[in-house]
Amino acid sequence: MQSAKNTKNAQCKRCMNKFKEKEIFTIQQFQYRRLPTYDWTREFFNLLEISEWDSFCENCMLYYGKISHAVWLRYCTVN
Questions:
Q1: pLDDT at 6
Q2: CA–CA separation, 57 vs 15, rounded Å?
Q3: Distance from the Cα of residue 9 to its chain's centroid
Q4: Residue 19's beta-bridge partner residues?
Q5: Would you kindly state where each structural domain of the chain is located, as residue ranges?
Q6: pLDDT at residue number 73
Q7: Positive or negative CA dihedral for 65, 25, 9, 21?
Q8: Could you read off the pLDDT of 32-64 as tens digits, one per residue?
Q9: How many angstroms separate the CA atoms of 60 and 67, rounded?
Q10: Which of 5, 44, 60, 62 could form a disulfide with 56 if both were Cys (CB 3.0 to 4.6 A apart)?
């Protein structure tokens, strides 16, 4: 029987993989990046029907970080 700290009981909304609760990432992680702003980031994820409290694994969080930044660069900055 697995101990409580090794139990994988959280699930990534994107890939559906299970992981440990201590390894949860949410879009709130993006409030610490300088650009795009967190307000813009929340609007972007709202369009994708992702809330601030949805759980993601590290790989999917990195994926969403890259695509949100790429969309912001392409459509929201002056070239």
A1: 64
A2: 8
A3: 18
A4: 10
A5: 23-76
A6: 95
A7: positive
A8: 999 999 999 999 999 999 999 999 999 999 999
A9: 11
A10: 60
Count of residues making up the chain = 79
* Token digits of residue 75: 């459509």
In single-letter form, the type of residue at position 13 comes to K
Q: In whole angstroms, what is the distance from residue 34 CA to residue 72 CA? A: 12
Q: Rounded to two decimals, what is the model's pTM?
A: 0.81
Q: Write the CA distances from 5 to 18, 45, 50, 64, integer angstroms.
A: 14, 30, 27, 27
- Any bridge partners for residue 18, and if so which? 11
Stretch 22-33: mean pLDDT: 92
Please answer whether residues 70 and 35 qualify as being in contact, where contact means their C-beta atoms are separated by less than 8 angstroms.
no
Distance in angstroms (rounded) separating the CA atoms of residues 31 and 27: 8
Mean pLDDT of the chain: 90
**C-beta of residue 39 within 8 angstroms of C-beta of residue 2:** no
